[in-house]
Each structure stands twice: as structure tokens, then as C-alpha cells.
Design goal:
Layout lengths: L2 H16 L4 H8 L3 H13 L14 H12 L3 E5 L5 H19 L5 E4 L3 H9 L9 E4 L13 H12 L2 E3 L10 H8 L2 H11 L3 E5 L8 H5 L5 H9 L2 E5 L2 E4 L18 H5 L3 E5 L6 H10 L4 E5 H9 L13
Parallel strand pairs: 1-9, 2-3, 2-5, 3-4, 5-8, 8-9
Antiparallel strand pairs: 6-7
Helix pairs in contact: 1-3, 2-3, 4-14, 5-6
């Protein structure tokens, strides 16, 4: 390459990368078409006049995130610090999820949300935003005390207020006494329309539950009966998303409990384009593995110790596992 060509490529590259001019502006300056400028910029990279370096953050967590993304076929993994206390871990998870949510929202989205302490922590970490035409919809009927902060309707209202969005709550309990009652409730126009909107959401925000000592399902005592819990444990259930249970392989629970739930099914959740799961801590490891194997998650917000364990786990993802893109 002669010196004159080198000089031209250098000037064009400096104008584009350092001066941040558009290709159209550079073309007007040098009397060249935008197509020609694009070709010259590509040539500058080929000739090593432009050498792009991606600088890795000092923490090194980004490489672990990338490894888990590739292994688990996830669009993104957001790692937060692990913590000695459950409360501190929830706070870290909430902050990570809130930061992610602020980044992805553009306006005109429908957000479906479930319930639980991890999602409550995300809401508590959010600052008010002004994003146009957002709708927040409840994907599972109410569970537990309606006045509790973790109740699905309360989380919907609080998130909608922070986003200046329109809330849509589900006027139904999340779990009812019989399949007949569920069918009657599901036939209600408001309930049916709300579930239809949730199933058509652009983003789903979910926790991954586990029948552990920190579980609201176990601790509340008003959501599942002791007989329900014993039956779930006997069937080797490891976790749930929006009260839809699965085993360690990700296989959905085959149980009459499904006939009493007013909310989206796992298949309906899986059809939502971006399912963001917020879960961490050692008690949740098997539940997270089951959710990943079942292909129910696109984006995982979790803690570093979970990610390090996932590095060593033989996940054997199912054919329905999510694909990046």
C-alpha cells in the first residue's frame, strides 16, 4: 500500500472513530460516497490501521457470565456478588435485576410478572423511570396475604408506578380448591383477558421457587397445604416458576395441582420472547438447574457461587432449551 492510500485510510479512520463523524459526513468532507467510505473503513481494519481491542472488566466476572451463557444457551447472564445472609443476597439480586430491566426497556412493551421476594427486591431497587406506553400484567393469581409486599398484585402496582405504566392485575386467587372453580374463574372475561395479555408479553419477570427453608410457599402455610407439600416432595419436585412445578430434569409436574392454578402454564411462559429469571443462593441451585434444563429461561440473574457450580454441572439441556439470539 502506497503512502498516499495509507494517509487517506488513516484520515478516514480518525474522522470516524476519534471525531465520531458519520459515514455521510466523512463522505462529504472527502468527496466520496458513503458506500466508498464504508469500504475504506473495512480496508483500514484489514490493513491493521484500525485495531479494535475489547477490554475485559477487571472483576473477571464477565468471562464467567459468557461461559454460562454459552453452556446454558442463554441470551444473557447477570452475576451479582454472593452474600452471607439471605437478605443481603436478595438485595444484590434485586439491584442486578433492576439494572438489567432499565437497560432493556425501550417503550411500548408488555411486562408479565409473577411474584416473590426476589422480584420484590428488584422493585425496591428501582428508581422511577419515564418509559412510554409500558404495561405491567400479573401472570399468576394472588397468593397468600393480599396485603403482603410479595403478593403478585402489589408487585404489579409498585412496578407500574415506578415505570409510569398501566397495571393489569389478575382478579383471582393463584390457587383454588378445585378444577371446577378454576374453570369458572378462567371463563371470567377479565381473568381470561388478563391471562391472554400476559401470554403475549414481550418480557416476563419471574422468580424460581424452591421448597426450601426460605420459601414463601413453605413459610406462609396458607398457599400450599402440608399434604400438597408432601406430595410434591414425593414426586421429587425441585422448583417452580409462577407455581408451575418441575423436577431436576426440567420435566413439568404431572399432578392435580395444575388443575387448580389460575395463571400461565410453563409452555405459555416459555413462548414469551424474553423470560428473565431472578434467583440465587445454595437452596435454589437444583431449582435453577431444572429451570435451565427445561428451557424456561432466557436471561438469568444469579450470584457468583451459583455460576461457579453451574460450570461443573452436567446440565444436559433438553431440546426445548432456549437459544441465544
Amino acid at each position: 500500500m502506497n503512502n498516499e492510500n495509507h494517509r487517506l485510510l488513516y484520515k478516514i479512520a480518525k474522522a470516524y472513530y476519534d471525531d465520531q463523524l458519520t459515514q455521510q459526513e466523512i463522505g462529504e468532507r472527502f468527496g466520496l460516497s458513503r458506500v466508498k467510505i464504508n469500504r475504506l473503513l473495512n480496508k483500514a481494519r484489514e490493513q491493521k490501521i484500525v485495531q479494535i481491542q475489547v477490554v475485559r472488566p477487571e472483576s473477571g466476572e464477565v468471562e464467567l457470565e459468557r461461559e454460562i451463557e454459552a453452556r446454558c444457551k442463554l441470551k444473557e447472564v447477570i452475576l451479582v456478588p454472593s452474600a452471607n445472609s439471605h437478605e443481603s443476597l436478595l438485595r444484590n439480586l434485586g439491584e442486578g435485576a433492576a439494572t438489567y430491566l432499565k437497560r432493556i426497556l425501550r417503550g411500548n412493551e408488555v411486562i408479565a410478572i409473577s411474584w416473590g421476594t426476589s422480584l420484590l427486591s428488584m422493585v425496591e431497587a428501582l428508581f422511577p423511570l419515564n418509559i412510554p406506553d409500558i404495561r405491567v400484567v400479573q401472570m399468576l393469581g394472588g397468593l397468600g396475604d393480599p396485603d403482603a409486599d410479595v403478593h403478585g398484585a402489589e408487585i404489579v402496582y409498585r412496578l407500574a408506578q415506578l415505570l409510569q405504566a398501566k397495571p393489569r392485575t389478575l382478579a383471582s386467587p393463584g390457587i383454588v380448591g378445585s378444577a371446577e372453580v378454576r374453570k369458572a374463574l378462567s371463563a371470567d372475561v377479565q381473568v381470561a383477558d388478563t391471562l391472554r395479555l400476559a401470554s403475549q408479553a414481550d418480557v416476563a419477570l419471574v422468580g424460581i421457587g424452591a421448597l426450601s427453608r426460605h420459601s414463601v410457599l413453605v413459610g406462609a402455610g396458607t398457599i400450599l397445604s402440608s399434604a400438597d407439600i408432601r406430595r410434591l416432595q414425593a414426586k421429587k419436585v425441585v422448583g417452580d416458576i409462577a407455581l408451575r412445578f418441575f423436577d431436576i430434569t426440567g420435566e413439568p409436574l404431572d399432578d392435580e395441582l395444575n388443575e387448580r392454578i389460575v395463571g400461565l402454564s410453563l409452555d405459555e411462559v416459555r413462548q414469551i420472547p424474553r423470560v428473565v429469571a431472578v434467583a440465587g443462593g445454595p437452596d435454589k441451585f437444583d431449582a435453577i438447574c431444572g429451570a435451565l434444563r427445561g428451557g424456561y429461561v432466557d436471561v438469568l440473574v444469579t450470584d457468583r457461587l451459583i455460576a461457579e457450580r453451574l460450570q461443573k454441572e452436567d446440565l444436559q439441556l433438553s431440546s426445548s432449551a432456549r437459544l441465544t439470539g
